[in-house]
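Readers outside the structure-tokenisation community will struggle with the description of the input data as it stands. I therefore recommend that a typical entry be quoted early in the introduction. An entry of this sort, consisting of the sequence and the corresponding backbone structure tokens, reads as follows:
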Amino acid sequence: MDTARYTIGWIAPLPLELTAARAMFDDDYHDIPVGNYTYYGGKIREHYVVMAVQPRMGTDAASDLVARMRSAFQSLKCFLVVGIGGGVRGYGPHGATSQIVLGDVVVSVPMSKHGGVVRYDAGAWTGEGTLETKGHTNSPPSFLLHAVASLRSKHTMSPGTNISAFLEQMRNRLNTNEQVKFADQGSDNDWLFRDDFPHPPDSRDKSCDDVCDRGQSQSRQDRGEEAMRGLDAPRIHYGNIGSSNQLQISATKRNQCQKEHGVICFEMEGAGVIQTHPCLVIRGICDYADSHKNKKWQPYAAATAAAYAKELLYEIPASQVSLATGNINEYGKSINHEFLVN
């Protein structure tokens, strides 16, 4: 077992996210037991990638896991946190709003005064009883941001993205009864409910199909051309991702974080990794970060995020990773003041 060859760490917070991730390997080297933990090794184009699933959710659990991986795999240069998240309904200036729909992908790219990940549950309580967010998280390393920018440009040109092909390959590697779960769930199953129409609090365990009035929602068609997608054709969005130990299910809080911090996606692990390790967060959108949680879209959202991550690794020469600056243990000790919140 050669642990020294692995240079990319891939965090899959949930088992279904690990399923999508492992199905993206070009070469699967299967289990790598180290101590009391099992990792999963393989190769994606030129890169040796080691994957791990979290034993529990949250930023603290993510921080613990990457510390364990760093100890077990001494040659790791960076981490990808890849999985599902909740998205805002849209962002951008009036008249040029970008719509986010279920199955789309959000990538943590620095925007405004933030480094791409915003820990919105950390700060100081004011006399008015509000939490004033302080500090920042580090931005992803330059070689990852360069690859994101390069891939973003390629997506605008012919032939465009390989995500659709990667999704088909992934599903072909799954058991037959699992393939439909990881398929595009289609526009007919994507409903955006009004901000003032919450899911019934006494029916959290029931689907919106059973207890929510569709008349209080918009379909993709209702939202206009910007919200329409072809089969297996997610759109990629770039910006700040909100990260917290708490599950975000409030439309009011979602809108507040978007207005104050430019957050366009919410998740529960990224801040626990990026503050002390070079990292990029990639999230497939499975719900709208409100009370109408949508498990139906979770497998497909995990798949689209994993497909983007694979395409990103195809964009990065292995030589760039091996030349990545410094010791991973030193990351986070120096502050990138460009993204400080005053």
Remarks:
- Residues 243 and 271 are 6 Å apart (CA to CA).
- The chain is about 30% helix and 25% strand.
- The first strand starts at residue 8 and ends at 12.
- The radius of gyration is 19 Å.
